């Protein structure tokens, strides 16, 4: 296992599922969430499905939302 892979986050499906669950718990629509984190609705949809990853900056925006 290379050093890069050892530290790389792998559970994007789980991350997306948890993100969607928490977004819904606070009553935020996908559209409002996308606006809040300064990303497109399509990006949020793909993130919640686990089809894409996010940067540290985006993770910070998500945590603030």
Radius of gyration, whole Å:
12 Å
How many distinct helices?
5
H-E order: HHHHH
Shape: globular
Helix content: 55-70%
List how many beta strands DSSP finds.
Answer: 0
State the secondary-structure class.
Answer: mainly alpha
The termini sit apart by 35 Å
Q: Beta-strand percentage?
A: under 5%
**Low-pLDDT segments, ≥5 res:** none
Mean pLDDT: 91
Main sheet summary: none
Task: Write a brief caption for the model.
It contains five helices and no strands. It is mainly α and 65 residues long.
Description:
This protein is mainly α and 65 residues long. 68% of the residues lie in helices and 0% in strands. It contains five helices and no strands. The longest helix is centred in the first third of the chain and has 14 residues.
